Amino acid sequence: MTVTVDDIRAAAETIHGAVVKTPTILARRLGELTEAQVWLKLENLQYTGSFKDRGALVKMLSLSDRERTAGVVAASAGNHAQGVAYHARRLDVPATIVMPEGTPFTKIEQTRLLGAQIIMHGEGLAEATDHAVGIAAEEGRTFVHPYDDERIIAGQGTVALEMLAEVPDLDVLIIPIGGGGLISGNAIAAKALKPGISIIGVEAALYPSMYQAIHHIPTTSGGQTIAEGIAAKRPGELTRPIVEKLVDDVLLVGEDALERAVQTMLEAEKIVAEGAGAAPLAALQSHRERFTGRRVGLVVSGGNIDARLLGSILMRGLVREGRIVRFRVTINDQPGVLAKVAQLIGDTGANIIEVYHQRLFYDLPVKLAELDVVVETRNADHVQEILAGLTAIGFETRLLSSTAVDSAG
Question: Which of 227, 238, 302, 393 has the lowest CB atom count within 10 Å?
Fold first, then answer.
């Protein structure tokens, strides 16, 4: 193993004062929800919104004067890009970033504002990386790998040094895995400081590249994930053996679990986490019994989530929990009937968000119409109260587009 805890300690000295020493906080509400003691390492509070500031700076400071003059090239879905761009600007180093097509707009724009040249290329990180390596070779620049670099690994490992300095009695760390730089550095540091600590990695189920590599399973990575920050199709050559030796398990989480985790993080702890940053919570929520009663540290690796995506996740969460539902109500097409439906819904304490009054395009008698009513409710019991009330006064009613509550007719 080429990276040691001494390398990580040296990296911590190197970046001291130039990156944020982010807080490790006790998440009491998450603890209540998961029956564990939960601590959050808030790397979303770094200047660029993710842990990538750490490794990027360690790497940039290792460059010779000639290498700094020539400039650097990186490939990233956003967070590594911003870390490299930020420190390149600080150190007056020209930077070019290759980003995959489909990278969230917020990450593209934030990287551009940090002064880097942006090139969009490839469907995913693997294609973007190959293109970036080619540019670096052609132009004589230094390629700054997002994870497969000893200095990057050492820089990321400073997260665990800080966590265990603040909360030395943690039983387990749950850490996202993309290419493996973050978990490798943290596993090295944490196991050196506390050999008995458990290190659990978490990957998006659509991109299980590290899990499949260490279990000798053919790769299947691909698809649309909200955790694009860890959507790596291939693990690192340096990071894979570290994971195999020091990481106790790798868990996979689906898109639904990732969405729930983003929503829970915001609602329970008022913390904005991107999909990758919420992945450790998704693993904790999906495997609660495994962590019951334990002191669990979650690395919130980043908070750079597109505002539109965050809004969609929150709205879908409300629908999933039955807090926003859509009723279809069959009514007599007569004056005053719509008002009667609205009055009943309002009397239950629900809030009507939208109403669609359909007279055409349905297989209904001409004197009937259908209302699609989108309603904000308290919970699934409240939904059933509204359904029962509408049915009791003679309106045929059914529930549409919800997985949290049962339909009734």
Answer: 393
Closest listed residue to residue 371, CA positions, set 331, 398, 407? 331
Rg (CA), the chain: 25
Cα–Cα distance measured from residue 151 to residue 321, given in angstroms and rounded to the nearest whole number: 44
State how far the Cα of 175 lies from the Cα of 248, in Å rounded to an integer: 11
In the structure encoding, which two tokens stand for residue 77, read together? Answer: 């879905």
Question: Which tokens is 185 given?
Answer: 């550095």
**Catalytic residue positions?**
52, 301
Cβ(285)–Cβ(309) below 8 Å? no
Residue 255: which of 234, 238, 276 has the closest Cα?
A: 276
pLDDT band at 100; cut points 50, 70, 90: confident
Report if pTM > 0.85: yes
Write down the residue that tokens 């978990």 correspond to. Answer: 183
- Torsion, Cα of 311, 316, 318, 321 (10° steps): -150
Q: How confident is the model at residue 319 (pLDDT cuts 50, 70, 90)?
A: confident
